[in-house]
Amino acid sequence: MTTTQATVTQIGEQALGHADPIVVLFGEEATAEIAAIAVLQRFADPAQQRALTVAVGDTIQVGAAAYTITYVGRAAQNNLRSLGHVAFVFSDTAQGDRLQNGLYLHPIADAPRFPDFQVGTTISYAHHA
Questions:
Q1: Phi/psi-derived region of residue 17, left when phi > 0, alpha when psi is between -120 and 50, beta in every other case
Q2: Could you tell me what percent of the chain has a pLDDT over 70?
Q3: For 97-110, what is each residue's pLDDT tens digit?
Q4: What is the distance between the alpha carbons of residues 59 and 95, in angstroms, rounded to a whole number?
Q5: Which of 36, 43, 92, 113 would be a feasible disulfide site paired with 49, CB 3.0-4.6 Å?
Q6: 5-21: buried (b, 16+ CB within 10 Å) or exposed (e) per residue?
Q7: What is Dmax (Cα atoms) for the chain?
């Protein structure tokens, strides 16, 4: 298993609290317009970020809450590697169109349907090869 960690460094005023179960993440290089609607993350090791692999069955942990990846959008891995950009989607992948930059996540055990994002929260991307 390979684990890559990032830390939440900023939360845009429009990033959380809307009806959609989606959180848009970006690296710290995001423009001001994007930062207003996104959660910004900084990877602990840029080389690990560039080599990051995400696949169905892998896990993502946001703080203490863990989730299984149930779908990986076609553009998600490349954008995550290059821009730190991905959408976490906390819903069933079978409904409607799938976001091609999305990672669809299902809670593990007693994890809440939607995690608590705070500045300083650690996000761990665990690839189970």
A1: left
A2: 96
A3: 788 999 999 999 99
A4: 21
A5: 43
A6: bbebebbbeebeeeeee
A7: 37
